[in-house]
Amino acid sequence: MNEVKDAGLYPTGMSGRIEMRTPDEVSAMLALKSCGWGTKRIAAELGCSPNTVKRWIAEGGWRGMAPVTRRKSLDGLEDWIVERFRQHGGNADVVRQELAAEKDVVVSLRTVERAVAHRGILWRDTAIRGHRIRGTGILNNELYIGRLVWNRLRYIKDPETGRRVSRLNPKEEWITTEVPELRIIDETLWDEVKHRQGEIDADPRVQSIKATRFWEQRRQTHLLTGLLRCGCCGGGFAAVGRDYLACSAARKLGTCTQKRSYRRAELESLVLDLLRRRLMQPEAVAAFITAYGEEINAGRASQAADRARLEAEQATVMRRLDGLYDAIADGLRTPGLKEKLTSLEDRRAELDAALSAPAPSPVRLHPNLSEIYRRKVMALAETLADPEIRTTALDTIRGLINAITVHERSDGTTVELEGAITAMIELAQPEAGKSLDVCSVKVVAGAGFEPAAFRL
Fold it and tell me: Is the pTM of this model over 0.70?
């Protein structure tokens, strides 16, 4: 019995059924009841039946001793986990406790998170751990001990990224209000959690990581940052250590089956080769120039017809205005004359503005566009080794890419690169690229490689 108590579990047997409740759940029941909560409301909060709440409150949280057999396998409990996960608003810790109480299954928080992630509910363990100083996360929510804290954070706009970011206010600016009626956790349990967090922070390994102040350093932008996509789930790639990249959904959520990781340097080399040799092939460029010429001619004809219509309307408006001016000069005065004159003058101003822009001149694409492009990309790739101009060259090369998709197949891995045709033509022929429709065309090139080439 003492061993069970030390483990933080209170088993009870009733009608052949074994139920488990942790000490904090029992104390929460008692605290909520003392605050005037009804048994149904407490049951909904803690995810149990109203009868269970009545029995545990009436008996002080203890009812005898019953043997319990524990197992670690979920054994097809995914549907049950997803249902309880939704019922408790995404609190994986409560689901884990109920697994131990009702199903005799002892699992980690990560196991619960992966189980619900496979059913389309994205969940991260950071929602539990949170940030101790900022007071975020379940383990740091002071409202659980009846303390409401305001003005802990302020929000500003990052001038470089345009994103809204939070900043911690000085502690003397925090506004703290005691709300004891909202307490659901006793002080002893809260202090134990804070003590354990302090022990983790005092660990030499944690201190050595904090000493680097890594959060003040911006991570270096690589050629493939933000461009890689998983061909299996469509999610993004994330760094795995210093030199490898892998599908983020497969690594963190377990919702993707593409578990392989790839060397960053070799992926970058392959992408540069695709940009140099596989995109902007001469025959493809020739076909594009032909199609572009036809599209431009059709557009020019439509623009010429619209311009001719506006010029004819402009001439009509001017003739009518001249007639009104002559009538006014002859002394004609009528109630609607001024209104008609104002309307025609406004329309004339609109037509003058529409016709003030010159008709766009036709753009002629260079017949050797692909070769010019290839030489410039090769020159850019060579400058990546120069730290002084690396950033500029990197931005230019990344601008040539819309997306990079990595497909994992039984016969190896295929990398598919979607190029931004507008940026490619602008690189080779600046005066031509600026007049192209950005969304008009896309160029795709693929390359396969053996898994061994990436030391998978």
Answer: no
